[in-house]
Amino acid sequence: MRRGRRLGIDWGDARIGVAVSDPDGLLASPLDFVPAGDGELDRILELVGEYEPLELVVGLPRSLNGTEGPAAVKVRGKAADLAAALHRSADSDTAGRDTPGIRLVDERLSTVTASRRLRAGGKSAKAQRRLIDSEAAREILDRALDAERASGTPPGQLLSGSEPASESDVDS
């Protein structure tokens, strides 16, 4: 298991859920959501600067049969935009930090699981609306961490063009 924080991202049309792991990559915790739209990339870049993650784990929405539809195409585009913004930010970063890679991981049923967890925790439907996106991001990140612990290899697919300077791994 590689050491380092990860940020989990659940990209939605209205809100972007965000979660963070501990430095050892053992536990994931939900953060607040980022409003989708103008300024979303800037806010995510701020979180990257604050947490200095090894990588970003972005949930890729697939249908139950595993195919990718319009939502997956949209998330792939958003992830590519984020990779470009990270590289622009790194070019102007005088601290010499590595640019984190972006991994796309299957997010099937993450929101359903997150909703069940919130409901079991006694959260009202109104409270769930504010928390669900970041709780889904936590679920996505938890699954990715579990997969890496089980297989010994990084989870999902490394987004082409988002390779950190210190990583030579290829799409998996």
TrEMBL record:
Alphabetized UniProt keyword annotations: Cytoplasm, Hydrolase, Nuclease, Ribosome biogenesis
GO MF assignments: hydrolase activity, acting on ester bonds; nuclease activity
Domain of life: Bacteria
GO CC terms of this entry: cytosol
SMART domains in the cross-refs: YqgFc
InterPro entries: RNaseH-like_sf (IPR012337), YqgF (IPR005227), YqgF/RNaseH-like_dom (IPR006641), YqgF/RNaseH-like_dom_sf (IPR037027)
Domain annotation YqgF/RNase H-like: ranges: 4-114
GO biological process annotation, one example: rRNA 5'-end processing
Location of region: Disordered: 143-172
EC number(s) given by UniProt: 3.1.-.-
Location within or outside the cell: Cytoplasm
Matching HAMAP family: Nuclease_YqgF (MF_00651)
Role: Could be a nuclease involved in processing of the 5'-end of pre-16S rRNA.
Protein family membership: Belongs to the YqgF HJR family.
Protein name: Putative pre-16S rRNA nuclease
Organism per entry: Microlunatus soli
Taxonomic path: Bacteria, Bacillati, Actinomycetota, Actinomycetes, Propionibacteriales
